[in-house]
Each structure stands twice: as C-alpha cells, then as structure tokens.
Amino acid sequence: MRIDKLTTQLQQALAEAQSLCIAQDHPYIEPAHVVLALLQQPEGSGKALLERAGARIPALKTGLEGILSRIAKVQGNDGQVQIGRELAQALNLAEKEAGRRGDHYIASEMLLLAFMEKDGLGECGKALRESGLSRASLESAIQALRGGQAVQSPEAEGQREALKKYTVDLTERARQGKLDPVIGRDDEIRRAIQILQRRKKIIPC
C-alpha cells in the first residue's frame, strides 16, 4: 500500500505507532500500537469517534496496554521494525472499505472498522469490543461524523476537527439537551427580528 493514499492524520498515527513499537523493543507494529497512537493524538479524530461510538476510553487504554505488555521484546534491533501481519491485513481491509465508499484517501475510521471485522484481528479487536464498541455503533458514529461525505483530501480529518473547533454543532447540542428551547419564546424571537430589521435599515448598501 502506498503511504500517500493515507490521510495525514493516519500517517501521523502510524508514525507514532512505530515510535511506541521501538520504545518498547517490539519487532512488529501491531494494531494495538496504532489504536493507542490514535487515542493519544492531541488533534486527532480517533478518540472522539470511539467515544461517540460508545467505547469506554480508560478501559480501552488499559486493554491495549495489556496487549503491548505481553508482546515479546527484541533487544538490539537498532530501531528497525516492520508492519505486523495483522496490521498489514487491516490496512488492506481498510483500503477496500475506503474504495467501496468512494474515498480517495484512507482515513483513520476505515482502519478502526477493519479492526472490528468479525474475526477481530486478534487481541486488538477483542479489546475494542470489551470497551463497549461494536461494528454497528462504529458505523453509526462514522456516518454522523462524515455526514455522507467521502474523503477526497489527505487533510480531510484535520478539516473536520477545525470545523468542530470553530463552529457549534446545534444538532449535537440539541441531542444533549443543551440547546435553549424556541417554543414558548415568541416575545424574544419577535424582539430579535425587530432589532435585525432596524440594523438592516441602518447599514448602507
């Protein structure tokens, strides 16, 4: 798989996963390295997506760290690590899923979906499920995140976060009960309209 077919955020997550792998003297980069890297991205969308899909993040981190603690260490590999078989399989599945959705680039959520395949891709899939995640809940969260849009740019994930940072999701606030009700506030609405009409008359064309 060509690295330039991955979104920038997923490329960064894989680089962080490689660093985690090297730091712990592991010979292969595994799915658990990648998911942990996604959770640790300060500007990434992986953690928020998993939370939205119902994953309990502390439980997931504990599960992932447990997986990594059981991987055999190899001393003296001079930082030379390879992609493990399970991660390579997941990347292939993610590429197929992205193509099916019309994506030009493979985003983090496609790799997370691959980790949730029915075979579970080993211990990482099990840790995701035990944290409260299911493929159905992840699919639903992805649909809400994307709003039906395909991934057409390597910066698509970063742009989503910028939108979230500088705008307010009124639908989400209403779902959480944080939006002031409009019904029964006719007087306030009428006054707001009058003020806007006055301002329109004042502002020169």
What does this structure look like?
This protein has a single domain, classed as Orthogonal Bundle (Double Clp-N motif). The protein is 60% helix and 2% strand. It has helices at residues 8-23, 31-40, 46-52, 57-69, 85-100, 108-115, 123-130, 135-146, 156-166, 170-175, 186-202, and strands at 28-29, 82-83. The protein has a two-stranded parallel ribbon. The longest helix has 17 residues, at 186-202. The radius of gyration is 22 Å and the shape is elongated.
The count of DSSP E runs of length 2 or more, i.e. the number of strands, is 2
Query: In terms of structural class, how would the helical and strand content be classed?
Result: mainly alpha
Q: In whole angstroms, how far apart are the ends? A: 56 Å
Low-confidence parts: none
Strand line-up in the sheet with most strands:
1-2
**Considering DSSP H and I runs of 4 or more, what fraction of the residues is helical?**
55-70%
Radius of gyration using CA atoms only: 22 Å
List keywords for this structure.
205 residues, mainly alpha, Double Clp-N motif, two-stranded parallel sheet, 11 helices, elongated
Short structural summary:
The chain is mainly alpha-helical and 205 residues long. It contains eleven helices and two strands, in the order αβαααβααααααα. It has a single domain, classed as Double Clp-N motif.
Layout of SSEs?
Elements: H1 8-23, E1 28-29, H2 31-40, H3 46-52, H4 57-69, E2 82-83, H5 85-100, H6 108-115, H7 123-130, H8 135-146, H9 156-166, H10 170-175, H11 186-202
Parallel strand pairs: 1-2
Helix pairs in contact: 1-2, 2-4, 4-7, 5-6
